[in-house]
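Progress against Task 2.4 (sequence-to-structure conversion) is shown through the following example record, which the project officer requested during the mid-term review.
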Amino acid sequence: MPAYNQVIEGIKRLLRAHKTRHEDAGADEISLAGLTVASEDISFTSAEVVTATTLTADHYLVKVDASSGTITITLPAITSHPDREYTIIKTDSSGNKVKIVGTINGEEDIDLTLQYQHVIIHADDDGDEWLIVGGRNVKLEELLERKFTEQIDLLEKIRQEAVKATLHLASQSDENIRENDAQ
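Structure tokens generated for the chain above:
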């Protein structure tokens, strides 16, 4: 039976993602490839969040406005929400971050810092951590900052070497001038 449940959950995710409706399906049904699922079996909610929030089974798409300050989104225990998926998106352009709290891909917490940066998180089948299964610009800012810092450090070393070389050449020049004056 677990494989059947996984198939049904996969179809529900697909239906939620594509919102496919079959002409013959009733108002309370969604159909795809001949399989009809009652709408009460599919929970798809979009929530706009401006304060710290712990996600529940009622959440799916979470749009977070952090313009007033850092907003913490806490993931629930996987055991209480197996095979659950959340999409979390930072909607504002402020410098404030959306902090997602929980064990995600083996790490504690992740931050969304850019406007429209989002992450799709799914409860892994083993039930011990959340997995990132999609998103945009996740951790890109950290990577860019690290690379930028490395480049700045390298440029500073080059500048210091250039100063040393210039001083050395200047001292050699002065010695050559003194030698020529002495002759």
